[in-house]
Amino acid sequence: MVNLLQFDRAGLGDFCEQLGEKRFRATQLFRWIHQRGERDPAAMTDLARSLREKLATHAVIEPLPVASEQVAADGTIKWLFDIGGGDAVETVFIPETGRGTLCISSQAGCAVNCRFCATGHQGFSRNLTTAEIVAQLWHAEFELRRRLALAPGERAITNVVMMGMGEPLQNYAALVPALRTMLDDHGYGLSRRRVTVSTSGVVPMIDRLREDCPVALAVSLHAPDDALRDELVPLNRKYPIAELLASCRDYLERAPRDFITLEYCMLDGVNDSPEQAAALLALVRGDGSAASPGLSCKINLIPFNPFPESGLHRSPAASVAAFAAVLLDGGIVTTVRKTRGDDIAAACGQLAGEVQDRTRIGERTDREVRVRVERRVAAPVSRGPVPVARERSVS
Ligand code: SF4
């Protein structure tokens, strides 16, 4: 049986042809799955009977089992999905006035191993399939629509960020059909501005994304120079800052916005000094020369969410404010991310809270590492309505 969540619309067309059906049937089927949340082919009344019968025999629309759900005081929801084999991934819904943002995972664990990231400390288990990526959105969208009793056509999720567990550009083959499903007017109909891929800087894949599916791009920078970034984001040793920023400049030629978002996690005494703010400003402003062209960007300062194994601490608010002031005075749009859902470990960099570390960081060898679900169901589980806004005219 094939899980139809695996296909973007072109892939679904191929599948319909394999079943001996007309390709255009895929559009009707796609709408039933992604606009109406229907799983039962028998209920898809405008499909040809022959197709409904074949679907019942050859296909399923299989969501991910929910291992646990937690609702934070601020309305943030974190779902833990069981993906089998002892692995689990987390998805976070963040309600705000005028928008509902879903943070989606792309891998079980992550191989990049950024020093400040709880997911990185878990090690890498496996890539998610397209179906497993899309199933996170499918579940959130239709579960929230049901709870909020939204009218047909109203959507709960207005924005998607690929910022959950994993490095999305290291799971490129599964990512791109998932993005296309999100953007498809017969699917979730999200604009390219409202879908963001966040990367630690996999330069060749940024270049490919620019050609294949140029959605909004966020880059985890976290340091103004290679020496420090080599320590915080080990991938920098392969793709250093100059190469990364050059790739970002090229990306802007096709990006839906005229800037790249640079994420900068504020670590006390590590990367948060005024001198480092000045170095970051010089890096992104450039001097107009070929050697230092700068980058059109917005900088997002992220309060670090500490976890015991990191040995790192959150920058004091005064340091964050002083750092932001240097950038703002230099003419760079700079924001400080609001911390959401930290009472349920759903804040940025905290995802992995319910998987057990099997990696023994520090003594790890090249052997396979596994991430195991602690199979206790988190409590308490709230099933009441959450305060998501219904307006959609936001960016
Ligand atoms: S910050 Fe992203 S790329 Fe780095 S370890 Fe965490 S999940 Fe992986």
Please provide a written account of the structure.
The chain is α/β, with parallel strands linked by helices. 30% of the residues lie in helices and 19% in strands. It is globular, with a radius of gyration of 21 Å. It is built from eleven helices and 16 strands. The relative contact order is 0.14. The site of iron/sulfur cluster (SF4) has 12 residues, from α4.
Secondary-structure map with pairings?
Layout: E1 2-3, H1 9-18, H2 25-34, H3 49-58, E2 59-60, E3 66-71, E4 77-84, E5 87-96, E6 99-103, E7 107-109, H4 118-122, E8 124-127, H5 130-148, E9 159-162, H6 172-183, E10 195-199, H7 203-212, E11 216-220, H8 226-232, H9 241-251, E12 260-266, H10 274-285, E13 297-303, H11 317-329, E14 334-336, E15 355-356, E16 372-373
Parallel strand pairs: 1-2, 6-9, 9-10, 10-11, 11-12, 12-13, 13-14
Antiparallel strand pairs: 3-4, 4-5, 5-6, 7-8, 15-16
The structure holds iron/sulfur cluster.
Features:
395 residues; alpha/beta; 10-stranded mixed beta sheet; two-stranded parallel sheet; 11 helices; globular
Catalogue the ligands.
Answer: iron/sulfur cluster
DSSP summary: helix tally: 11
Which strand order spans the largest sheet, edge to edge or round the barrel? 3-4-5-6-9-10-11-12-13-14
Strand content: 15-25%
* Total DSSP E strands: 16
